[in-house]
Description:
Chain A is α+β, with helices and mostly antiparallel strands.
Amino acid sequence: MTGGERLSAVTGETPVFHAHPPCRRTPSIHPTTQKISLAFTLKKYLAALALCASGALGAEDSKPGTIQDQLAAMQESIRQMQTQHQQEIDALKKQLTDQQTLIEALQTSAATSTAPPLPSGKGEAAGPSLTPPNVPAPSAAPPKMEFPTTDDALVSSRAPASAQPAAASEIMPTIDTSVVAGPTLGGPPITLGGGSKMYLNISLDVLINAAASTARDLDIIEVGDHDPIHRGFNARNTELVFDGAVDPYFEGFANIVFKLDPQNETSVEVEEAFAQTTSLPWNLQVKAGQYFSQFGRINSMHPHTWDFIDAPLVQGRLLGPDGLRGVGVQASWIVPTPWYSQLILAVQNGEGGTGFSFRNTGDDGKFAGRETIDRQLRGIQDFVFVPRWESAFDFGSTKTLLTGISAAFGPNDTGANAHSQIYAVDAFYKWKPDNAGGGWPYVKWQTEAMYRRFEAGRGLDDSFAASEIFRDWGAYSQVVWGFKTGWAAGVRGDYLHMTDSQLTDDPERQSRWRLSADLTWFTSEFSKLRLQYNHDFLEASHFLGGRDVDSVFLQFEFALGAHGAHKF
Amino acid sequence: MKIRSIILIAALAAALLPSAQAKLNVVATLPDYAALAREIGGDKVDVTSLAKPTEDPHFVDARPSFVVKLRTADVLIEGGAELEVGWLPPLLQNARNEKIEAGKPGRVVASQGIRLMDVPATLSRAAGDVHASGNPHFMVDPIIAKAVAQHIAQAFATLDPANAAGFQANSAKFETEINAKLQEWGRELLPFKGQQLAAYHDSWVYFAHRFGFALETFLEPKPGIPPSPSHLADVIGKIKTDHIKAILVEPFQNRKIAEKVASSTGAHVVDAGQFPGPAESYTAHIDQLVAAVAAALK
């Protein structure tokens, strides 16, 4: 591309370059500049005229009377014209410097995203509040410029509109450059406000729990990895969150979690780190990386967005303390129906603690009482497949229901041919009145039920006495009432049924129920305090006695950084 | 049974097939942008607003049905300046609609080209829920509304060149109407120029600037922070000493608190919404707003 073409691309005009550089003309002379150079040309012309006139005066000295008078009159009129033109030139110069100041102000604001000094809105007259320019006024602009020095396509150079005299009848200004920037000619407005000025949104979210419980083994009573797992203070979820656009094709997300164990040792967890497509055709979206499977509702939610401090029993025992997540690929399709309906299919490794019911060698190499085999991936059939179908319906302008059915299929590590299948239904209903302020009041109802068929094999080298099939199931249901701005109260009922195996004393296989109540005070959007009471009842099984446990938790959350957005 | 399945198939087909009409499908995040879109687009566009006029624009639920609306949108008009930051991003992530991606002609960011007021010099949430780009409640200034209307007209013209002239004409018509209306509104409000207003939340700085009111008294101690008794005591003192006559309250704010302040000071509660109703025009809405404020100040 030549210089001329590039310029024409910018100005939208045909370049009129001549072959020889000395004869080059500017492709587009700014109107104001044109006026100024015109004025200067006029001035020169007038000066020449004056010279001629004085020359004539010298030649026709013999007739002093009327001619001299005429000449004097001419000189006077020339002087007047000169003054007049000088005034015009001065006005134009001022206009130019005003514009330069405006341009500079715009550039500064564009560069720093800070608006130029603005009227405070405290009763001062509307109008441009730009201070007189400190920049030196451009001295006589050259009549022919080598290169354009202004460009309307990029920089608005319209005279400040309020400089135009208002019609006599107008008591209110109808233009105000202190709030609206002049639009660039034919293009979109100059960006002054709005939009992110960062490539990456970063935030930090910290959950601190204080726990009291009648149980010494709180890590058995509480089923989630981010729940309070020992008496006293717990910091199980310090989460760094990153997100942003990768490029025009992908968005990236990452949640890095730092956990403190009872010995106050820190462990780091790449909870999620994935990218997803932004603009595939046919309502498709693909994501890849480490991510929570979209199974049920609470599984893919981060603990600080939960309505209770701890994970529901069925979530922690069937999907695992870490939830069902892993490295893999997910494709989803929004079904083009008039209501919201989406089909999702994830394929993940399903290995380790985050693939709890699948290829999970378990703690100390044991799961469901069996010595596990570390089954390596043999083929596509050894992945975990997680399909889900979710739909949502609005009931009027205040009520919304989101429902889903999910499943997860894959092999497990308790036997060479052992498999697991989990099925779930979930529903979430929210009422929020039309004039809710700050998000309050509201009522939310959330329920999930899950069923797991777990083929427990004979373990490593058939070391276990027998193979069994566990048919485990459970459900929870919770209602949260945001009764007053900043306040919410909730109740939850939890039930978990685990097949009572006569062959294993695994304490995680105890059937149980739980009742919870909590009260939350959202001190602001970025911090909250939550008090929760749990009553747990663990049923007697073949090996384990039944018992009641009472626990009280107090949670404090704070968030720093980018303003998080809330999914429904 | 047969008839029912035929109807079902037909309904499904109707839903699946792209609609034959060439109308631009416009989604606005807030009702004020929707009102301008209707003004500019006329019968050449279908306009939907995600938020309701009575709703707090900072706290709109990201209902899944919004994904359906955004999925098929030709144009998205948003305010920007972090007003919708709490609910729009997850909707857009799920909508997977190339036409309304940032930077595309179908994405209109209304705050573009507007010099926002109250841009914080330092960013700290100790100052409440501040917006880094400035105060986003700019649509109550009719001069700004003209610029936004022009911006919308440009976007419509780009996307539907066949009707470009019509959109530009509507924009010009809107501009003329606002210019005339401004004189009317000015006649009503300029007699009170220099007076102080109080408000629940700082949503009225642009309105105050336009009509020459001073606005520095808020029932919220800091943006987004609910009123505390000690702060309200200060506010009551200030309203009394400065003889503030009007307290602007939006439909989603706690009117009872404002009433309490009003009854102990003699000020009037002004029911002032930022947003026009579903069928209300922008000028009709400002008419109402101006009349309400003028009535309280008389």
